Amino acid sequence: MAFPPTPEILLRSASSLGILRDLLASELERARSLPRRAPFQPRAQDGPGPFEAALRRGPLPVIAEFKRGSPSLGPFAAGADLRERLAAYARGGAAACSILAEPARFLGRPGDFGEAKACGLPLLYKGFVCTEAHLDEAAALGAQAVLLITRLLGDFLPGFAAAARARGLEPLVEVHEPGELPAAQAAGARLVGWNARDLADFSVRAAPAALLRTAFPEALLIRESGIRTAADAEAALGEGFDALLIGEALMRDPDPAGFLARIPRPGAKP
Fold first, then answer.
1. How open is the CA angle 156-214-161, to the nearest 5 degrees?
2. How confident is the model at residue 206 (pLDDT cuts 50, 70, 90)?
3. pLDDT for the residue 200
4. What number of CA atoms fall less than 13 Å from residue 225's CA on the CB side?
5. CATH at residue 106
6. Which 3-state string (H, E, C) describes 186-211?
7. In percent, how much of the chain has pLDDT > 90?
8. Phi and psi of 266, rounded to 5°?
């Protein structure tokens, strides 16, 4: 299968994906204005990169997300101060941060990654990667990891994962249903996220940690979406997930450091 895919192929494959197709179309259009990097020297990655390592070694394996809005909620945190909130995430013990790059629905801004570096935590470029220009942008902005959505990329996922690694980026491969696991396996995913929220209709479903562990015995399993309380976080870790990505709950909480502090540390004595 030729890589990279054309916009027409991606849009045709996403014809039944509702909001996700709209986001894909918007990002394909935005990608036309993104600068392409000068030729780079591909970098081999043996073992965990800094993003994965931070989640594996930190006492609180949480990716704390900064986002100002979403398609389902609108601009629910449009006035949030990025530096202030990320500093709170660091105080609360988060191992890494996720920054929304998509501007139309999630209100990402070009300068967010530059400001986010001040928190000192590894950064995930979270968006709707569908071209190599998005990977170039993630690398240029200083992200350590990049989200790749299996439902969006389909059989092209392994190509995008290889292209991300060549740029020194760690791919976090997101799946939504068991049928997407073979593509994630073909991509050699070391970071596997299960998004409990269906991006086609934004409903929240169960997260099958045991199934994921069977498919990815060595990978770091990340539960995404649907974590509303510290008790939810504790339950997800107890079900077998290695790490969590928490966004809306932290953005809505007036004390995000306190929210994170209430999550029991895995392996800690009660």
1. 20
2. confident
3. 60
4. 18
5. 3.20.20.70
6. HCCCCEEEEECECCCCCCECCCCHHH
7. 82
8. -55, 130
Residue 40 falls inside a structural domain:
no
Q: Is the dihedral of CA 90, 54, 161, 226 positive or negative?
A: negative
3 lies in a domain?
no
Is the separation of the CB atoms in 133 and 160 below 8 Å? no
Note whether residue 7 is domain-resident.
Answer: no
The predicted pLDDT at position 263 comes to 97
Range of the domain at 112: 18-31+47-71+78-261
- What confidence tier does 202 reach under pLDDT thresholds 50, 70, 90? low
Structural domain count, the chain = 1
Q: In residues, how long is the chain?
A: 270
Whether 41 is in a domain gets the answer no
pLDDT at 29 over 80: yes
Angle at CA of residue 30, ends 142 and 248, nearest 5° = 65
CB 169 within 8 A of CB 147: no
